[in-house]
Amino acid sequence: MTTVNLRRTPLYDNHVALQARMVEFGGFEMPVQYAGVLREHDAVRHRAGLFDLSHMGQFVLRGAEIGEWADRLTVNEVATMRPWQARYNLFCGESGGTHDDVIFYRQEGDEWLLVVNASNARKMWGILQAHRRPGITLENHHGTDALIAIQGPRSVEIVGRLVAPSERESIVGMRYYFCARTSVAGIPVLLARTGYTGEDGFELFVANDDAVGLWDALLEAGVSDGLEPCGLGARDVLRLEAGMPLYGHELEEDITPLQAGLGWAVKFGKPVFEGKVALEAQRVADDYARIAAFTLEGRAPQPRMGYRVYAQGIDVGEVRSGAVGIGTALIDPSAAKVGSPLEVEIRDKRWPATVVKLPFYKRAKT
Amino acid sequence: MASPADLLYSKEHEWLKLDGDVATIGITDYAQSSLGDIVYVELPKVGATLEQFGNVGVVESVKAVSDLFTPIGGEVTEVNVAIEGDPALVNREPFAGGWLFKLKIADAAQKSALMPAADYDVLTAS
Question: What is the CATH class of A12-55+144-241?
């Protein structure tokens, strides 16, 4: 730990002042919790939470052919995206395994923002570089641009207070998975109606130099709504409940999008893309181990990555993520049907579980 | 918070309160704060005989599983059933309602391997 030179986001001093507990994540020193994971989780579900996500990799892509170029490198459609639209996507290898799961944000003209996982940023930059071609320019903004998310039912109202009155209606009315260039608290941002918690909210892409000003303005504007700073611990529980995959858990170099239950994002209608042949074969065979969600019965310990999973006494796979009473596991297809009984082995004891449909949590539509 | 002066402490962040030959055992405020939100506690069984400093259970927080050690040896006479339904009680009241188990101690001399509150607070302040 001490030999690794960890990077810090521009909000590092804010986290320390807020008495956050800092941990290594993706090469950065990041807040895992402030007041406590459960309290922060509650804030996001019922009020609002503020997250520093500046460790995420941000790449700016420019060129008239970005859409067509990216369509060959990813499983979902890129060229069909409209200006100011955002779309979830995955980069796969030839074998169909996942290099990373990402979001493309299309802006005006030929400019796109690609957001990748912190832990994969170096690898993904290498993959993009290897496919660079004339007419396409790539800029690596990892660590030089910041990202702040505000998530929870009060988020939109809080952000609405900090935008110009003339823009308020369009900001508040922005559709899910769309974005806009605007100013929040007088600070220029790319404001996106995206998130990783299962709640409504925004993600704000901002220059490093403006990050502290934006963070402070949001915290102050939201204090009367119960807005609280939230760490990566709460974020992990929130995303798991919302059924969203986390790279390194539900996704890996040797786990395909189909295995992770992300077949909806794989557009086999595209003529050619990296991993298509392997993914098509996997889809046809339909015999692959897959991510299943499960609930534990009664009062059980928390399932954690790597715990073995059994069906009718036979080892069928392993836990990939867990929170109190719930988890995901990568298991044989025969055991993965909704309603199937499982057992999760936790410290030499097997605890009864049941396969359920994702997500565990879905917010009420307003 | 300063650790209560009437308790004894182990390097593994358990506390012990002695009442005759019955010891009440829990984890310290420092331990619960380091662990974060506690979501599950696995306690020894009533009747089990425990060795001093032996691994007797686990305390799980959202992020981690930590071994639980007993600061003194003896036979388990009671466990705190309240924390089965409400593990966060250990976070809220580590030195009171969040106690973990009671032992009939085997050898009072084992106390000498534990620390008074002042020494424990020095240990956790560094």
Answer: alpha beta
What is the dihedral angle through the alpha carbons of A197, A336, A73, A236, rounded to the nearest 10 degrees?
20
ipTM rounded to 2 decimals: 0.86
> Would the CB atoms of A33 and B36 count as touching at under 8 Å?
yes
Domain ranges of chain A: 12-55+144-241, 57-140, 289-366
Tell me whether A78 touches chain B (CB under 8 Å). no
User: In the prediction, which pLDDT does A109 show?
Assistant: 87
pLDDT at A3: 53
**pLDDT mean for each 10 residues of chain B (126 residues):** 92 96 97 95 97 97 94 98 95 97 96 96 89
Q: What distance in Å separates the CA atoms of residue B13 and residue B25, rounded to the nearest whole number?
A: 11
Q: pTM for this structure? A: 0.94
> Which phi and psi angles does A294 have, rounded to 5°?
-140, 155
CB contacts of A37 in chain B (<8 Å) are 36-37, 62-63
Assigned CATH class of A57-140: alpha beta
List, for residues A109-163, the tens digit of each pLDDT value.
899 999 999 999 999 999 999 999 999 999 999 999 999 999 999 999 999 999 9
Alpha-carbon span B4 to A69, nearest angstrom: 66
β partners of residue A349: A346
Q: Which fold has domain A289-366?
A: Elongation Factor Tu (Ef-tu); domain 3 (2.40.30)
pLDDT at A304 over 90: yes
Fold for B12-125, please state it. OB fold (Dihydrolipoamide Acetyltransferase, E2P) (2.40.50)
Residue spans per domain, chain B: 12-125
Q: What chain B residue is nearest to A323 in terms of C-alpha separation?
A: B62
Mean per-residue pLDDT for A76-91? 98
Residue A260 near residue A98 (C-beta atoms within 8 A): yes
